[in-house]
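G., the chain you wanted modeled:
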Amino acid sequence: KRTRALPLPLICCFIMFSQRSEQSLHIETTCGFLLQELENMWDEVGEPNAERNEMLEEIEHECLKVYQQKVDEAKKLRARMKQEIAKSEAEIAVISSVMGEQPPCFDWKTVGSLKSELELIMPQLVDMRTRKIERKNQFLEVLDQLEKISNELGVSLEDGLYKMVADETDLSLNRLEELRARLLVNLDEKEKRLKQVSDHLRTLNSLCLVLGMDFKHTVCEINPRMDDREGVKDLSTNTIKSLADAISGLREVKMQRWEKLKKFATSLLEMWNLMDIPMEEQKRFYNITSIIAASASEVTETNMLSIEFLDSVEAEVSRLEQLKSSKLKELVQIKRLELEKISRTAHMIPEYPSETIESGTVDHECLLEQVEVQIARAKEEVLSRKEILEKVEKWVVACQEEYWLEDYNK
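Predicted structure as tokens:
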């Protein structure tokens, strides 16, 4: 007995296999050989046709099942590859748009298979992703510098800039260059303000030295961030204004103290000259009397206008004033004797209220000034009478010689 003809699906499988490679031809030969061997064994065993047909149908079903499974897998693979290609194209287009570039064009007609398309597009996608990450890092680097400088300048940085990079809404070169240009402007502004703050701090330090004030404490009162050991961290307009106001205030204090010191220096000079104070005592305060004619801006010596030094000068002035009151009467008497001596030389009678000196009813300082005026006038009178006095002196000498000769002749 012969079995029925081979099922159509198996014949189709064999036809397709016959159109493939040598490996497919080998499979076809093997399959046919096995089927022939199966029929021979059925003949030998005496397998009924019904059972043979049932077994062939089962083989046909299994073959179709396997074939359908492979077809389904191939369809899924094709769909997955097309989806991956489409997704990659879309991602490349999005990245190109975000980076402000034209997306690359792919000529799929010349590529062929889907695997070839993937092999072409994937390296391009990896490159675009790498460039996007590098571009984001460039944005973040510029934004970090902008934020740091903005904090130092006391201005706020827009929140949307970091969000723009995080959301990848605009990573174009034009936008990056705009931020870099803005960074350069801020750097220039920072350099200008840094120089301005440095000049203010230098001026403030010199004022503190002259006034005997703690520079660091003064700066901390203006802005605690200015005492940062790593450098100036606050360059805001408020800080610069505060420094300028502090300088203006200290200059006013300096001017007031300098005027006070000049008054003390003038009093010292007057009392030194009045009481003939020894040079050894004057040396201690010679530095202030030597610059009495200077302006406040010319005073740069450390602690020259400190409260402690002003107090010491004031104490010296008070000491000399007390000394002056005790010695003034003595000085008036000395000047009186000088006036009398000059008057005798000029054959003059001095006009001097000696009784008021003893009674103490006259201000001794005023009286001393009057005596000094009279001494000056007496000296002028001596000069004006010099020629006459010389003639009188010669006449007196001649008279004395004549009297001597008369006495000698007698």
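The first helix runs from residue 8 to 18.

Shout if anything looks off.
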